[in-house]
Amino acid sequence: ERMTKGIEYILHLAARLFSKGRNSLRQVCIFCDHVDESCWTAAADKSLGLLLSSCSLLTHFQFSGSVGCQMHAALLRFHSLQNLETLVIDSVRWDSTLDFTLMLSNKPKLRVLEITNLTKEYYPGWEMSAQCDEVSTLIGSLHRLQRLAIAFSDGFEQILDGRMIFTSLRQLEELMVGEVLIDDSVLHVISQHCLNLRQLQIYGCCGISLLGLKNVLNKCPIHALSIPFFRDEGKGVCAVTELCQASNNLRTLEIFDGICDKSFPSYRNLEDKRCLLQSAAFEASAGRISLLFYDGYAPTTPVYT
């Protein structure tokens, strides 16, 4: 349920009711209204930490907050959650690398990791290269990961090294990333090591090329690809045609409309452009690929259930 009042009391009560052992909660999902940042306080953070300390068998944790939601006491408890398989955190503020490393360490069973809607001013001190490498290495050590999303975070990815992350994620099937974490060199690493990748969503990134995308499509069994503008944006219809011909596995291609602006005369409206692109995709794939469009900054991410 969505809770806007008394959340610290509810969490404290849950911690008392669900103690360690057979009564331990297996799933914890918390949704705070984005319009009411006051619902999440330091007391709520402390109460969540108390609850997590009693959930030795927890396998699924999901928190969706607002830009003002800060976690510290709760994150300190994640280190002991060795059975965690799903960790989804959206719109949370933390203050130090220690919080992040404690959250991700000691997670041998983790299959789903989604960290979204963070802003750079909320993690000062991460600019040091040693700390960046530590965080990248930690994510890369989660060998059982099948879904990874690091997105919508206003520069969060720039502290991470994609080459260190993806070298060991051989079971990865779904990936959503953006900003400066992904470029052609990282796409090459993904194409060499993430050979089970079926879904790739890239947003807000101008460091990739058509050649880099074709390479990863050729090496990985990607069924769904979402991309924004990229270096070869001027190729328009030709770019869509080449992407559709790069893989027999591809079934869905979702693109940002700006990808083709330079290849269409100014008198053509949006619907005309879309029709031409869809025709190009249909022809290049013999009807195999559905071409979709999105108008926003980033692709739509389905809610994990």
Give the SSE string.
HEHEEHEHEHEHEHEHEHE
Task: Let me know the number of strands.
Answer: 10
Low-confidence stretches: 230-234, 297-305
Radius of gyration, rounded?
A: 21 Å
Distance between the termini: 14 Å
- Mean pLDDT over the residues: 79
Structural class: alpha/beta
Give a quick account of the main beta sheet: strands, pairing sense, barrel closure: 10 strands, parallel
Oligomer: single chain
Estimate the global geometry from the Cα principal axes: elongated
Tell me the β content.
15-25%
Helix content: 25-40%
Helix tally equals 9
Q: Describe the strand arrangement of the main beta sheet, using strand numbers.
A: 1-2-3-4-5-6-7-8-9-10
